[in-house]
Amino acid sequence: MVIEGLDGAGKRTLTDALTAALRDAGASVATTAFPRYGASVHADLVREALHGEHGDLGESVYGMGLLYALDRRGAADDIHDLIVGHDVVLLDRYVASNAAYQAARLREGADSDVVRWVRELEIDRFGLPVPDAHLLLRVTPDVAATRARGRAEADTARARDAFETDDDLQSRCSAVYDQLAAANWLSPWHVIDGADRVDAVDLAKRLLA
Questions:
Q1: Are strands 29-33 and 2-4 parallel, antiparallel or unpaired?
Q2: CB of 2 within 8 A of CB of 91?
Q3: Mind telling me which InterPro entries this protein's record contains (predicted)?
Q4: Mean per-residue pLDDT for 52-58?
């Protein structure tokens, strides 16, 4: 199961709360977050490029998309093992994140060539497992930006990157996420209002029903 949303939407908070609620309900749960900063050379290259390193790499839509995909390819075996060993596997960002952001960067939609490329690369070629469901934690771009700024101010190690500081990109990405959800891209999508605190216990009950 994948949790998607804008930078600052509250994905990590929801992942932690939902993990606790699912475990309290008796389910065994494993979690993984992408990009895997500090654990994957491809993820680290992403972070460095988003902070202005490696020349014009950060400006390349397909170059950055490939690095995100390679980060997940490196985790593919681990994900398969987690699926076998647990009732629920929660992924904080996954393939849809790559599709949404790269389409938004090109000012295109969910039916664009880059979205098809992401699916063919990550699912068909790299063999990443298709998620059972997506949870789209939906907040307005303004709310997400405010939360991201607050997070960066509270934790100097999480300075906002080039994507997070681009308000127009975040707005376009929000629209692509909505399109992916409406199309049930890859698997069923469930849209959750993230403007207020999400009732993780109720959500866990619904997911396990």
A1: unpaired
A2: yes
A3: P-loop_NTPase, Thymidylate_kin-like_dom, Thymidylate_kin_CS
A4: 96
Residue with tokens 């069923």: 188
- d(C-alpha 92, C-alpha 5), whole Å: 9
The pTM for the full model equals: 0.92
Q: Which two tokens stand for residue 87?
A: 């009732």
CATH of the domain at 190: 3.40.50.300
Omega prior to 129 cis, within 30 of 0: no
The Cβ of residue 141 has, within 10 Å, a number of other Cβ atoms equal to: 20
Q: Where do we find the tokens 């934790």?
A: 155
Domain count of the chain? 1
Q: Which of 185, 170, 179 is nearest to 133 (CA)?
A: 185
What percentage of the chain carries pLDDT values higher than 90? 82
Strand order from edge to edge, sheet including 2-4: 29-33, 88-92, 2-4, 134-138, 189-193
